[in-house]
Design brief:
This protein has 206 residues and is of the alpha+beta class. 16% of the residues lie in helices and 42% in strands. Bound molecules: 2-oxoglutaric acid.
Length: 206
């Protein structure tokens, strides 16, 4: 069960304006935009998504073993109904806000459920699709307890950038971020509560 933030109790689920987004230039053509608390009623939305999304546990080959992917997943393709109307509103608001810079709408939504501090995702860029070759954007809204999203220059070495994301926070990774930087949600030994992230991506970015 999620320990709600004090300010979030009994708030209607909804979105604030995107005007407060603040950009940090990472270098090598990559940047992040962050807007804390963009989505109101985030703890309520967390409870609804945790209970209603048909979460999938995946397994993958790791060397000679097949292991559990340490988080639950659900992917919604373009045109598929999202599990809460506010997610459609968020996707559309992001598409409108970034239309000049991105030149195309966000179309898909990938949901990840980190049940506790043992769930995580390793260093990667979203490079299965066009993000490997082209500048693009991946916008992530987080609900539930904050977890650190860490970014570093591809291959490591340089300083890393860390943002704690939960309770309705928005981060947008843009420019060359998916090919010149990589990101991760590290495991945490601190008593991290559950978190759900919703990643909006344009067509062909994965
Ligand atoms: O949960 C997050 O905020 C990051 C998710 C992510 O990097 C991914 O699924 O590619």
């Amino acid at each position: 069960m999620l320990q709600g933030s004090l300010f979030d109790q009994a708030e209607e689920i909804g979105l604030g304006p995107l005007t407060g987004v603040r950009r940090t230039v990472l270098g090598d053509g990559a940047w992040i935009d962050v807007l804390p608390g963009w989505l109101r009623g985030a703890d309520e939305l967390y409870e609804r998504l945790a209970g209603s999304v048909p979460w999938q546990a995946e397994r993958r080959q790791m060397y000679e073993r097949v292991v559990d992917v340490p988080r639950l997943l659900k992917f919604y393709g373009a045109g598929q109904e999202l599990p809460h109307p506010v997610l459609g509103a968020a996707r559309d608001a992001l598409s409108a806000h970034y239309s000049g810079e991105l030149g195309e709408p966000f179309t898909t939504a990938g949901l990840c459920f980190y049940r506790d501090g043992r769930d995580s995702v390793a260093w990667h860029g979203d490079r299965i699709g066009r993000g490997a070759r082209e500048d693009t954007m991946v916008a992530i809204v987080s609900v539930g307890a904050p977890r650190d999203l860490v970014l570093r220059l591809l291959g490591g070495g340089g300083p890393s950038v860390r943002r704690a994301l939960g309770h309705g926070d928005l981060i947008v990774m843009g420019g060359s971020c998916q090919r010149t930087w990589e990101h991760a949600i590290p495991k945490s030994t601190r008593a991290a509560g559950p978190r759900i992230s919703v990643q909006f991506r344009p067509r062909g970015v994965r």
